[in-house]
Q: What sequence folds into this?
């Protein structure tokens, strides 16, 4: 796991903007104005290359290992970063008060996220990002700024929260910025979908971005179960209506099912419900719990060992796959899954929060195993974890 | 905010029944098949259903959960939503969305068979006065493009259309030429015995990507007895035609229908093995219909629907075992009905719709320029009863649709509103066939308890459901596979049973 922030010494900064970390290659491309870039002196190698001419350009500031390397009088960031947390191409936010640098965008990473808001209209039992009722509308502007500094060839981008649709028209603005600056980058918005039940809102996203899709969770085939898991009366009806409104507006939809115990108990009924009522969804993701946030407080209510849901998972995946509904398994270690499910398992955990356990050392399939969230503890670890040591049937089957 | 237990989210209002229908299972009368307005369904104890209806069940009874998820009841209506039910209903009736997509053109009535049950009042091969003229054909092409459907299936049939190949070729090329401007998606099917199919003809069919539909009633003796020619070579000629077509158009280019005569009832095994031997992966076992000449000769070739169902039950067993043997073979009608049971989708078949497919899903253009809503209506006219003639090709589709004939069809064309059907648990999956009922019972509404159409439908649904529910995992897999592969209604997939 590679953290997303690090300690830093910040000098001569008037305000704290978002900065593109630039090396000489970045400068040559010329996509971003000097005023938005911080020259990463660490990338230049011998000091001699940082000529006065180069330093004299109107950079927003400079990044270096030591004070002494910084051009005097100019804004500077001194990092203690042996791990390589901040690298050229990244976009960083400076937090002078905390003396920290946050990586808001990491070049080349497939799991960059625009964090939309801390607010939410649900209160899910297993929420990994517990919501806060704060006014953080400033994030809209920051996301728009961030989008301007993101590489055009970024493989994918997500918008998450909190609940992004609480931004209302602000979400349209952010997506519009992505359409202008990153039209080729698949954009996936994680939303509970409830807001789309409001008349006309879904339609405002028609043709909003060429590669836009929505990831919407559904935890049950009836309102009692879903409303209980998301701890909100009426949520199921709103989400279902929202899904139809999104479909009506020509949007692409993924259904995300976090495998909490009460949902696993009706998993077969849930996938049947999806097929019968929402056959237009593009993808169904069945996801292991992220053991942080509220999840920790509800261990007894939500935890079920993946080893104990093997039959349910197999039946659900087989049902969907036979009906040409694309299905994937997220956040589940391979050794806890039956072989027939391996082709459906994805390495879904972002690398900055992915870790492996001792049995993973020397495990034959580690390279394509989802592994574990860094904060996984014993209680949240399947009893089925074991090193895959030899070429068992199915191991070499990479295709699917 | 505090977390709340499950009981906090169960809603506070009593449940309501949504429109539902049920039928006791013939193989287990203590249980019932319960269906929703849109054809979602559940098998449950009949006694439990009664308790649900009497509202003596506890609110947290698990069966209520299953019933709610299938839109049979609604618990607290403020917290649930009927949107999925409406969406399912719309998906089920998707065949209504674009207007008729199946257009049958009768190129010639000439035929070389003298089948006792012929459905189309064929004429001897030399009688060219029963050919469609070029003028009529050109007008048909004009009308074709006046319909709104983006996807069109054009089916050329006869008599034997290949006896008038010049017209076939003319129609194909004129339609494609006209489509340069129209940009519709067009699929061609020709229904033929394939007896006189030549290599030159096959080359033409290849150019237009034509699918062939033929008749193969079983092994040689049976087929030849059903389809007499003076030379007694009907079977051999059809097989030769199939080979010739496959060699150039590909292995999947020919589909075959099996007409079941009295003689066929005795040997389902021989029929099915003939299909396997001839490399077919689909078979369509269809009973004789009451049209054409069949009604007159019912004593000789006829049999009751119950006899047909008994035959079908045996045939289904054989087909399943062929599949378990590793050879994929589906039965077409079973696939259609199973798709209605096991998928939420609409289908492309015009003879099992509500509102009826006659005139709404299909239009028939006869050789002489008369227009009918279905092949059955055309056959009635050939026997002197023009009750269901829509008009002539010189008139517009608007005129046809507002004809008294169409009105009469529509009055009896919605199964959900027909006596008998309106209470039947299978009605969301079934269809209305007013012309069939008129032909058999003298009245488009018809009388369900004595209707052969209904008897066949109900018998087939019962049988397929029973076989699925009592079947092994392997049986179920085969049956579900048929259901999932069945064509959905994008209207381009519309098919008729002509052949
Ligand atoms: S041992 Fe580790 S790497 Fe191997 S399958 Fe299990 S969790 Fe994955
Ligand atoms: S025709 Fe028979 S089986 Fe079909 S809906 Fe009507 S009553 Fe039911």
A:
């Amino acid at each position: 796991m590679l953290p997303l922030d690090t300690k830093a010494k910040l000098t001569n900064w008037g305000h704290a903007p978002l900065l593109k970390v630039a090396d000489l290659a970045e400068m040559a491309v010329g996509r971003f104005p000097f005023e938005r870039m911080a020259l990463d002196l660490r990338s230049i190698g011998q000091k001699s290359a940082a000529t006065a001419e180069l330093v004299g350009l109107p950079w927003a500031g400079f990044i270096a290992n030591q004070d002494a390397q910084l051009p005097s009088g100019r804004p500077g960031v001194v990092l203690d970063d042996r791990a390589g947390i901040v690298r050229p191409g990244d976009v960083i936010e400076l937090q002078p008060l905390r003396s920290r640098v946050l990586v808001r965008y990491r070049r080349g990473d497939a799991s960059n996220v625009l964090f939309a808001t801390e607010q939410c209209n649900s209160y899910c039992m297993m929420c990994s990002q517990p919501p806060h009722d704060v006014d953080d509308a400033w994030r809209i502007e920051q996301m728009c700024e961030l989008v301007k500094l993101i590489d055009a060839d970024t493989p994918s981008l997500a918008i998450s929260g909190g609940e992004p649709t609480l931004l209302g028209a602000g979400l349209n603005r952010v997506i519009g910025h992505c359409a202008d600056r990153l039209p080729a980058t698949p954009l996936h918005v994680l939303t509970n979908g409830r807001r789309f039940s409001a008349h006309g809102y879904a339609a405002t996203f028609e043709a909003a971005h060429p590669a836009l899709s929505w990831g919407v969770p559904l935890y049950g085939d009836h309102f009692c179960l879903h409303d209980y898991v998301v701890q909100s009366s009426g949520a199921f009806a709103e989400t279902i209506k929202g899904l139809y409104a999104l479909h009506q507006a020509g949007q692409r939809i993924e259904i995300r099912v976090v495998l909490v115990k009460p949902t696993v108990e009706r998993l077969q009924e849930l996938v049947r419900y999806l097929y019968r009522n929402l056959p237009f969804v593009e993808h169904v993701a069945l996801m292991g719990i992220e053991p942080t946030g509220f999840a920790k407080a509800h261990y007894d209510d939500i935890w079920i060992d993946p080893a104990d849901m093997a039959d349910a998972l197999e039946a659900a995946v087989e049902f969907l796959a036979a009906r040409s509904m694309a299905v994937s398994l997220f956040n589940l270690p391979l050794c806890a899954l039956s072989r027939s499910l391996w082709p459906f398992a994805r390495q879904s955990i972002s690398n900055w929060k992915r870790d492996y356990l001792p049995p993973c050392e020397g495990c034959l399939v580690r390279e394509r195993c989802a592994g574990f969230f860094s904060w996984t503890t014993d209680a949240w670890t399947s009893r089925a974890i074991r090193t895959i040591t030899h070429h068992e049937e199915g191991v070499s089957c990479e295709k699917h | 905010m505090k977390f709340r237990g499950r009981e906090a989210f169960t809603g506070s209002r009593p449940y309501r029944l949504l429109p539902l229908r049920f039928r006791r299972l013939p193989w287990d009368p203590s249980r019932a098949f319960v269906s929703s307005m849109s054809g979602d369904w559940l098998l449950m104890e009949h006694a439990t259903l009664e308790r649900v209806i009497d509202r003596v069940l506890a609110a947290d009874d698990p069966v209520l959960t299953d019933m709610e998820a299938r839109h049979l009841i609604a618990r607290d209506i403020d917290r649930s939503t009927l949107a999925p039910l409406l969406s399912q209903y719309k998906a089920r009736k998707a065949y209504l969305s674009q207007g008729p997509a199946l257009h049958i053109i009768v190129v010639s009535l000439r035929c070389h068979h003298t089948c006792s049950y012929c459905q189309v009042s064929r004429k001897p091969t030399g009688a060219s006065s029963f050919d469609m003229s070029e003028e009529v054909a050109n007008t048909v092409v004009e009308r074709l493009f006046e319909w709104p459907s983006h996807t069109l299936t054009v089916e050329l049939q006869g008599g034997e259309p290949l006896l008038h190949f010049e017209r076939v070729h003319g129609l194909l090329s004129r339609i494609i030429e006209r489509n340069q401007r129209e940009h519709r998606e067009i699929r061609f099917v020709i229904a033929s015995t394939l007896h006189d199919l030549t290599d030159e003809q096959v080359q033409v069919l290849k150019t237009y990507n034509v699918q062939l539909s033929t008749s193969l009633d079983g092994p040689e003796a049976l087929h030849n007895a059903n389809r007499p020619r003076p030379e007694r070579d009907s079977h051999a000629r059809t097989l030769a035609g199939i080979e010739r077509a496959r060699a150039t158009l590909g292995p999947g280019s020919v589909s075959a229908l099996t007409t079941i005569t009295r003689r066929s009832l005795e040997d389902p095994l021989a029929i099915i093995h003939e299909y396997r031997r001839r490399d077919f992966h689909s078979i369509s076992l269809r009973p004789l219909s009451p049209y054409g000449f069949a009604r007159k000769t019912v004593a000789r070739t006829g049999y009751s629907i119950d006899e047909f169902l008994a035959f079908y039950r045996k045939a289904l067993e054989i087909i399943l075992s062929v599949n378990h043997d590793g050879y994929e073979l589906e039965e077409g009608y079973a696939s259609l009905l199973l798709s209605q049971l096991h998928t939420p989708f609409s289908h492309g078949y015009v003879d099992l719709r509500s509102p009826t497919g006659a005139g709404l899903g299909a239009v028939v253009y006869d050789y002489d320029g008369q227009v009918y809503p279905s092949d059955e209506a055309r056959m009635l006219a050939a026997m002197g009863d023009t009750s269901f003639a829509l008009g002539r090709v010189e008139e517009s589709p608007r005129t046809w649709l507002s004809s008294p004939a169409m009105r009469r069809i529509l009055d009896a064309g919605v199964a959900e509103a027909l006596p008998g059907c309106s209470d039947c648990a299978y009605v969301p999956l079934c269809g209305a066939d007013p012309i069939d009922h008129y032909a058999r019972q003298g009245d488009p509404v018809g009388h369900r308890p004595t209707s052969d159409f209904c008897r066949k439908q109900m018998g087939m649904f019962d049988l397929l459901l029973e076989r699925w529910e009592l079947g092994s995992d392997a049986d179920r897999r085969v049956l579900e596979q048929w259901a999932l592969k069945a064509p959905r209604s994008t209207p381009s997939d519309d098919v008729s049973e002509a052949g």
